[in-house]
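for the record, two folds in this file. i put them one after another cuz i was lazy. first one right below, seq on top, structure tokens after. the second one comes after a little note so u can tell where it starts
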Amino acid sequence: MKPQFYKGNRDAFMEKLEPGSLALFFSGSPVRKTADEDYGYFANRNFVYLTGMEQKDTVLMMEKDASGYRETLFILPPNLIEERWTGSRMKPEEIEAVSMISSFAYKETFEEELKKVLTSGRIQKVYLDIDRMEGQVVVSAADSMEAFLKQEYPSMPIENSLPIMKMLRLIKKPCEIRAMEKAQEITKAGILAMMTHSKPGMYEYQYKAEYDYALAQHGVLEAGFPSIISAGKNNFCIHYYGYRGQAMDGDIVLNDVGVRWDNELTDVSRGWPCNGKYSSRQKLLFECQYKTSEHMFSMLKPGIPMKEVDAEIRRYCFEQLKEAGVCKSFDDIGTYMWHGGAHHVGFDTHDVVSARDAIIQPGMVFCVDIGIYHEEWGIGFRLEDNCLITEDGCRNLSKDIPRTVEDIEAVMN
């Protein structure tokens, strides 16, 4: 992304705030794994959306007044010893080239600067990016700041930035779509690598190795999210990460994988027979998926309530399953369809956007995900593609990844 993208995102966010507002965003810190080892660091996505930066322990402070807003980025100072161990820290000029932020201070001065601002009389409310989930164990920097403000400045109103950020991230800009298209090309390479190397007896970790190797050839060193690659009975675990199963002759291999390119994600699922030839039952169920997917891409357009997407997927897929003699009553559709059929993608795999009650608009990108699970037959797979809503319809961003029985069998044979 060009730095103008991140500057534009900050402008759009601050435009929603009233004068006298202070907004704080935190990049986050590594989480301890064990002993002196941390889990791999992953920057807060809203922070990245506003700055383009993924450096740990960094704080963005933005203050709005009647004339506009001022911003300061609090960064880690140079530290020769630590940088020998963990790598060089970004310098102000490097950060400015990425983000178009030009005002900097060192992180160690943040608390004092925050105190000055909060006691200046200019601030009427503070915005924090609060995004808690039930059962959450790790306390975020925004959570800690909320507790600090309530204790030290109990009369200061605190607002949540998340609803604004969810609204901003809902509609993708042209540069985001281009990044997604590039990510689709690499996703295709990874899926084709698994398909072309597939054979009975392969282990799931071998399929994963093919996928990861293909991505690495394009400079992508980590999958966009933990890859779901399963075979046989393991396909009946929707989010499966074991990678220890073996694909036996006649088994379906299911993958649900993605690539992150320039911060934008793909999320694509395909299911194929490890021996390269669909059985009659596998083909029957796959055709139900495919016809449902094609139906959705033929009718999705601006103006449709987002909640109708999943409902229509279930209705139409039921009709296909009924015609195939698999499901007699819509009341039984839950026996074969176990999960929703649409979620947005973007900076997150399940993108954090205001979509639940939204009306479909141009620039939205979400998955069309048709999953069918027939435990009695031992067949479980899904056909998942990424749908871009256009001015008068939609476009399947992942259409070039083999998605018909004929195309998949041709690739594998």
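(here's the note) second protein begins now
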Amino acid sequence: MNMDSPRNALGNTVLVSFLFACVLCLCTWSVSLSDPLSFSFYRSQANMKTSKFPADELELALERVSTPNKTVIIAVVNQAYVEQSAGAETTMLDLFLESFWLGEDTRPLLDHLLLVSVDQIAYEMCFFKRLNCYKLEAEGVDFGKEQIFMSQDFINMMWRRTLLLLDILKHGYSFIFTDVDVMWLRNPLSRLSIHNESVDLEMSTDHFNGDPRSEKNPINTGFYYIRSNSKTVSLFDAWYGRKDNSTGKKEQDVFFELMDEGMLGRQGLHARFLDTAFFSGFCEDSRDIEVVITVHANCCRSINAKIKDLNAVLRDWKKYKATRAEAASARGDVTVPLRWTGHFGCLDSWNNNV
């Protein structure tokens, strides 16, 4: 009778176990590579100190879109951003989503986007588009209509947004916050310090003064990355705590006042300010389409004007991609000069109600 010896049986068991471990590692590596956001954050996962938080609705929503090290992308919408007005070609939300479709290495990032709706119509539209949705309750306040820049309703909505973002930090999640009027033309992870734990905050600017450490940069809270830790929670607590003593000021103005008073230094908080060459806007265009990452419709007063000019941005981007592809196929110079279309709708918005 031919029977395996105990030594052979043990050897076979070890071999099978080794092969199973290899397959498991390959599967894990494959998943990481298919998700650029998750892969970029994976290195710091082992250093994260996870803390348990009650499983409220916000926690469940954040957990659903989070990367392994608890980082998410947050955007806020209302009815005016999701419904097409009579004078508009499309909606702000549709332009925002189209930029992820057209951008370079941006489509997988939608898996980590949590779209926060401040009214029921926006919430229903979010679900209709099969996105990751969260309903922000705001009792007794109608945030659904268009909030004209610097109107009292606009200011109130910005402060309600700030309170939500503070809550997200307290839940232990770091995030990239983006306004919906920001076009994502390239994946921003290569330019953000997400895996550099010495940086707590990176914020966009209306005009970049050349020094990424200078707190004199005119900030814009429409796009930034912030790491969840005790320093940033304290900063946002102090920021929101000034709401009732800042009549007539938007939350961005109050944040700049905190910086001017040295709050970042007192908190031991390390901040960087983003170069408009990469994170640009209508206040200051990027001079190089070869490196631009985002385009923000800042320095603009109304939604219709933003839609008009952001449509032009995406047309310029599609033209650039087509020209680059033609140059590459012809084995010619792939450097494609481009002049952005003028932001005429936004310029007119300051003089007219458009």
